[in-house]
Amino acid sequence: MIKTVSKLPSSGTTIFTVMSKLASEYKAINLGQGFPDFECDEKLKDLVAKHVKEGKNQYAPLAGLPKLNETLSKKMKHVYGMPIDPNTQICVTAGATQALYTAIMAFVNKGDEVIIFEPAYDCYTPQIQLAGGVVKPYTMTYPDYGIDWNRVRDMVNNRTRMIIINTPHNPSGTILTKQDMEALEAIIKDNNIVVLSDEVYEHLIFDGEQHQSIMRFPNLFEQSMAVFSFGKTLHATGWKLGYIVGPEYLIKEFKVVHQWNVFCTNSFVQFAIADYLADPKNYEYLPSFFEKKRDKMNGLLKDVPLIPKVAKGTYFQAYNYEEVSDLGDLEFAKYLTAEIGVAAIPMSPFYTNPPGDKVIRLCFAKQEKTIEAAAERLIKLKA
Predict the structure, then answer these.
(1) Is the C or the N end of the chain the one with fewer CB within 10 Å?
(2) CATH number of residue 315's parent domain
(3) Given this model, what pLDDT does residue 383 score?
(4) Are residues 305 and 215 part of one domain?
(5) Are 182 and 261 part of one and the same domain?
(6) Do 282 and 354 contact (CB within 8 A), yes or no?
(7) Given this model, what pLDDT does residue 69 score?
(8) Torsion angle of alpha carbons 195, 196, 198, 199, nearest 10°?
(9) pLDDT digits over 303-352, tens only?
């Protein structure tokens, strides 16, 4: 046996794997891992089948199928008012995680500092570490999960190479406002900083709010890239298809790394999505669709001693459980799974240094019957 040295020695099994295994073991309703338990549109599946049968099975171009990139360019102009060149400012990727990884590898070098906002999606830190970068976490806490941009400004120095933002935010369900984006824009001005904006839940935004994409801020956009996910938009997470958008000079460097990573993604699904997203109705319904599911779950749990931080976006709802238990969040999530029969995700794994908030995350991207069944079990909780 040869000797090996781990590049991520402190990286264990993800909390999603741990809780999903526990859910399976106890036959719990899995509201932990973030994926729908309902099918994507039959029209979309028919389009995929059509293009497979028509022989669209060979390599696509490195940056994505031209027809798909044209569709995306029109979509971004329609939604955000930003003209995006389909030939030079878009790259289709093997899911959002690969886009994030490739962007970090393209722009973060050994010793560079990267500011992230915790609780943060769990792939950011290991990806930064693999690039040789140094993670500089800003801690957001319950109940507001807000950002003091003066504190962020104080974190910036001549080693700061990247700032990663995520809006709508997983796992808290919060969103960044126009004022937040303007504050970020002011911070990076005249600094050699790339903003990597994780916007995979762009269409899952509620209560009449508007998604504040970097594409709404032309000056900010000049130093930024935004990552999107077809899996989240189309209820098809297993397809692992996404894309990244940015100014030409950043996307050009992104593609240098992308070509030696996956080079391109599957062709037939790109053809299908190009056809499907040409009709805005196929994504404009999403805010109300998921808002109803959020309201359904919160309504059913109104008499349960779980206090919601009502989600403004994503399909995740954060709940404070301090009226129920003194357990730490991981132990409480395990208790919920084993004793109540509902799997949740604790908030602490999303932090470098957990603040001790008694908060769990539940996913409401589920059928009504799933939400109702979970609520029936959670009613057993007593203050």
Answers:
(1) N
(2) 3.90.1150.10
(3) 65
(4) no
(5) yes
(6) no
(7) 98
(8) 60
(9) 999 999 999 999 999 999 999 999 999 999 999 999 999 999 999 999 99
